[in-house]
Amino acid sequence: MKLVLAIVSNDDSSVVSSSLNKENFQVTRLATTGGFLRAGNTTLIIGVEDDRVDACLEVIGNECKKRTEVVPSTASYDIGRYASFPVEVQVGGATVFILDVAQFHKL
């Protein structure tokens, strides 16, 4: 058995969770924050049998597409002087960790 930890954008989390549920994966969702943009993310925790890991990754990959967004950025030019300008950044996609599970108990 494997433990899949998938960090996805909040924008993708509902669609990914629904698609995983349709494929009979049980998903636990955690609200998380981090990264360069300090944007909200969702960490999905999924217990997966070894032979279904590829199917789980396929669902996540199909629903979490990378995209470009324009976000405000602030630069400091002098003490107390700031300028705001838009910056294009790539968002979306998923970061996935797959861990071995030594034991699993459902009580």
TrEMBL record:
It comes from the Bacteria. Signal peptide: none annotated. Keywords: Receptor. It holds the Pfam family CdAMP_rec. This is Cyclic-di-AMP receptor. It comes from Erysipelothrix inopinata. The lineage of its organism: Bacteria, Bacillati, Bacillota, Erysipelotrichia, Erysipelotrichales.
